[in-house]
Design a protein that fits this description.
- About 30% of the residues lie in helices and about 30% in strands.
- It is α+β, with helices and mostly antiparallel strands.
- The strands form 2 sheets. The chain has a 3-stranded antiparallel sheet with strand order 1-2-3. It has a two-stranded antiparallel sheet with strand order 4-5.
- The model has no long low-confidence stretch (mean pLDDT about 95).
Length: about 100
């Protein structure tokens, strides 16, 4: 059996000086799901390697963003597994995430 795909998170505009959207990227069965989390962050507060917000003492809301991203990742994996390991269309996947 194949591995379960790993959800990833990318910034919409990684070179931006202001806040930018965070996208969930989930690749499965030759498809690429790109879903806006509606969460925003400044690129200088983002760990590009870990694909999560940096841990900053002065910004406790970054912990909330990290927790929400972890929830999105869990939801994506759950949807993938519950629909016969990826036998779901992109549109239906997005509806399930909403």
């Amino acid at each position: 059996m194949a591995k379960i795909p790993k959800p990833r998170f990318n910034l919409k505009k990684p070179q931006s000086k202001s806040e930018t959207l965070i996208y969930l990227i989930f690749r499965y069965r030759g498809q690429k799901l790109r879903y806006s989390t509606q969460l925003t962050i400044r690129p200088n507060e983002w760990d590009f390697e870990a694909q999560r917000p940096l841990e900053r003492e002065r910004r406790p809301d970054l912990w909330a963003i990290r927790r929400q991203l972890d929830e999105y990742a869990g939801f994506a994996k759950t949807i993938y597994i519950e629909h016969d390991y990826g036998a779901i269309s992109m549109e239906d996947f997005k509806v399930q995430l909403d």
